[in-house]
Amino acid sequence: MGLRLLACLFHLPTAVIYGSLSLFVSILHNVFLLYYVDTFVSVYKIDKLSFWIGETVFLIWNSLNDPLFGWLSDRVFLSTQQPGAEISSPEVVLKRLRALSHNGPLFAISFLAFWVAWAHPGLQFLLCLCMYDSFLTMVDLHHNALLADLAVSAKDRTSLNFYCSLFSAIGSLSVFMSYAVWNKEDFFSFRIFCVLLALCSIIGFTLSTQLLRQRFQTDGKEKWDQESTLKELYIEKLSVPQEKRITLAEYLQQLSRHRNFLWFVCMNLVQVFHCHFNSNFFPLFLEHLLSDQISVSTGSFLLGVSYIAPHLNNLYFLSLCRRCGVYAVVRGLFFLKLALSVVMLLAGPDQVYLLCIFIASNRVFTEGTCKLLNLVVTDLVDEDLVLNRRKQAASALLFGMVALVTKPGQTFAPLIGTWLLCAYTGYDIFQRNPLSNVVSAQPKLESAVALEPTLRQGCFYLLVFVPITCALLQLLSWSQFSLHGKRLQMVKAQRQSLTQGRAPEVKTI
After folding, report:
1. What percent of the chain has pLDDT over 90?
2. pLDDT (tens digit per residue) in 209-259
3. pLDDT at residue 69 greater than cutoff 60
4. Is the full-model pTM beyond 0.85?
């Protein structure tokens, strides 16, 4: 029985095994996004100064580690242009898989460090955030890089993306179960749940990477030179002299003149902020807007839908992008976000069913937009190559620079959210005021009774005005983005002509 199971696993399509890696990331990362702020504020009682210091340091590290790890990982590929020093595509794939087999389990272990108090809350908050994000970045970096290493054609990459979205949707089921065991007063059940998730992730990373490594080690020599479903891009040795490489300062100067890149990162910074704002404050909205009007199972369903639906919607959005273009689909999602928020504002916080739909749909469409933006970055890579007449596309570096500018939105989300809530309602989540004891048997103090409706109204305004503001800012910046329509077609045509002009250098096997 066991041998038969191993045989079935070994014969799974490569796209399925590659996509399964998304499952082992999403089962942990969704729970992290939903509960890490609430855990340190409500359970570990972190003070405001330590929280802000931790988030500020995390902001800096979170922005820098993408380009830093990208350079450390791929510099060997960039520096092996001398004759006889080529690195073949199978070696690149195996290097990435070895990195995933090491960093995947370490990522799961760093996830566990959040849920047990082992140091001063401020110190633990800082160390856990930086350690977790480091391993998450390494996993994401190599997983995304494999997308380019395993496939060349759009059809093959779409297949890989399809399984990533499918397994990410399955991984989001962990949110359903987490809401059932989440209890600030009794943290034991939630800790056991997190340990089980981490064990599943460790086993999954180890098994999936081992299967892929065996496949490329055993089949690489025989199948890599033959036609297969995974295409290799082979760069022959050139007899022409090497061109002078640009420095980092020159590259940054070129980016500063790349108008569409600048408008895109402005829009994407707001998008990243809104995505993480929804994740961080989802429990707060459920607690103060819906907790006394919906059951625990309904709250669990809302959480699960808000995490699963974006991955399923991505499959539909991709089909829309093929027909209408990415620019039009993203712009339509911005208008939809604005319209839904205005309707919810006019309806008020007492429309329970409409509020449930809005809270879920707000996250669904926001996350769905995030998953389309990698397609825009690939268009920017094409334009960067054409504008600067590069010999090869600097795709990894451009992805890193996008992350450098936009990742601070992850840190701005909890900081600005807590500040806005405190400024409007006077409710400070870091203060242990009488409102936190309203569920106890003691009679409510007059200040707590007076604060409750104000806090509920404040949460509602935060829920609707943040997406309204984000949508307006994004529509403004997106209207200035010109890489669509005829211009995009022209850029694609020029890149194809450049590729054809280098036909002796590049061939697809």
Report:
1. 23
2. 999 888 877 655 554 454 444 444 444 444 444 555 666 677 778 888 899
3. yes
4. no
Residue located via tokens 């609707």? 464
> In this structure, what DSSP letter does residue 286 have?
I
Q: Six-digit token pair at 483?
A: 């890489």
* Helices 352-387, 446-479: crossing angle, 10 deg rounding: 30
- Classify residue 230 as left (phi > 0), alpha (psi -120 to 50) or beta: beta
What single DSSP character describes residue 114? Answer: T
Q: Contact 509/234 with Cβ under 8 angstroms?
A: yes
Residues 80-86 have a mean pLDDT of: 41
Contact 430, 51 (CB under 8 A): yes
pLDDT reported for residue 333:
92
375: closest CA among 451, 264, 464, 242? Answer: 264
Which amino acid is present at 408?
Answer: P
Q: Is 227 exposed, middle or buried (0-12, 13-18, 19+ CB in 10 A)?
A: exposed
DSSP state at residue 288: I
The amino acid occupying position 226 is Q
Which residue matches tokens 């981490």? 198
pLDDT value at residue 239: 47
Residue 411 has a CB neighbour count (10 Å cut-off) of: 24
pLDDT value, residue 370: 84
What is the rounded CA–CA span in Å between residue 361 and residue 333?
Answer: 11
- 506-508 and 233-235: which strand pairing? antiparallel
The one-letter amino acid code at 434 reads P
Contact 19, 162 (CB under 8 A): yes
- The DSSP secondary-structure symbol of 229 reads S
The yes-or-no verdict on residue 208 having pLDDT over 50 is: yes
Handedness of CA 52, 56, 58, 59 (dihedral sign): positive
DSSP state of 435: G
- Bridge partners of residue 233, in order along the sequence: 508
Tokens in use for 419? 């500040």
Q: Do 58 and 129 meet the contact criterion of CB atoms below 8 Å apart? A: yes
Report the alpha-carbon angle 376-367-379, nearest 5: 5
Residue 376 CB contacts under 8 Å (≥ 6 apart), including other chains? 264, 326, 327, 330, 483
Three-state SS sequence of 186-203: CCHHHHHHHHHHHHHHHH
HSE, CB side, 13 Å, CA atoms: give it for residue 358: 29
Spatial separation of the C-alpha atoms in residues 312 and 166, rounded to whole Å = 7
100, 21 Cβ separation under 8 angstroms: yes
Tokens at 389, concatenated: 């007449």
